[in-house]
Amino acid sequence: MFNDVDFVSQFRRGLEEAIKLLPSSLELVIGLHSNGEEQKNNFGNRGEHNSLHNGAVKGEEQDGGKDRSKKKGRKKEIVDLRNLLLMCAQSVAHYFTNGHDARLVGVGSGGHEQFSFLNSQRITTAEYLKAYQVFLSFTHFKKFTYFFANTMIMEAAAKSETVHIIDFRILFGFQWVILIKFLSNKEGGPPKLRITGIKFPQPGFRPSERIEETSHRLPNYCKRYSVPFEYHVVVSRNPKP
Q: Motif VHIID at which residues (predicted)?
């Protein structure tokens, strides 16, 4: 598809080409005067009519070369209306989709500049991780929760070749980095780690965007510690009662 700059340039180009197809106001006035003269000549004498007719013929013969050159020049100005309308429709669909996505996500219904500005205000993964580290440094309850859960998993999977974890609301998956490190130090080599991440779909046209980012992050950790890894994504809502 096109980016925003291409859509604006295509729209302006279409506007210029459409203006070329419309007759100018001067041509319309000349056409009205010529029609009036023809009606007047019909009621006048034949001598005046013949003289005007002969003068018009001479004028046409003199301007014949100019008319031919104008016709040749007009051929170069032919516009492909089909492609022009398709590009206009694509640009309208592009902005409509962005606006509809903004409404679903809840970032407002303003112009495209406002939509881009509000999108830039979203919290990135790196910013979330920094805030999460500050949170863990001030409270130790979360640390003990992760440590206890990872210890129980290691004891339950002491003799297993595959460890399958189902994580509801996995979010970024930061808590599994410690488990990956524990598995890498296991005697006899690390087992295969399989994680199924289940999360509510986020609003908009990309409901699994954040959980798919986690699917790219966790394999990097496993590759660093040489742990076989498999990841599955499930985006689901709670069934209505």
A: 163-167
pLDDT band at 56 (very low <50, low <70, confident <90, very high): very low
Contacts of 198 (CB under 8 A, 6+ apart): 166, 167, 168, 169, 170, 234, 235, 236
In the chain, where does DSSP find H-type helix? 4-21, 25-43, 46-62, 64-75, 81-105, 112-120, 125-138, 141-156, 176-184, 209-224
C-alpha dihedral, 47 to 51 to 52 to 58, nearest 10°:
160
Query: For 66-119, how does the pLDDT look when each residue is reduced to its tens digit (9 = 90+)?
Result: 555 555 555 556 667 778 778 888 888 887 777 766 666 554 444 444 455 455
Radius of gyration of the chain (CA): 36
Q: What structural domains and CATH numbers belong to the chain?
A: 4-43+80-118 (no CATH), 125-235 (3.40.50)
- Tell me if 211 sits within 8 A of 235, measured CB to CB: yes
Q: What are phi and psi of 232, to 5 degrees?
A: -125, 145
* H helix intervals, 22-45: 25-43
N residues, the chain = 241
Q: By percentage, how much of the chain surpasses pLDDT 70?
A: 55
Q: How many CB atoms lie within 10 A of CB 115?
A: 20
Q: What would the two tokens of residue 93 be?
A: 């669909």
Residue 97 CA to residue 113 CA, distance in Å, equals 15
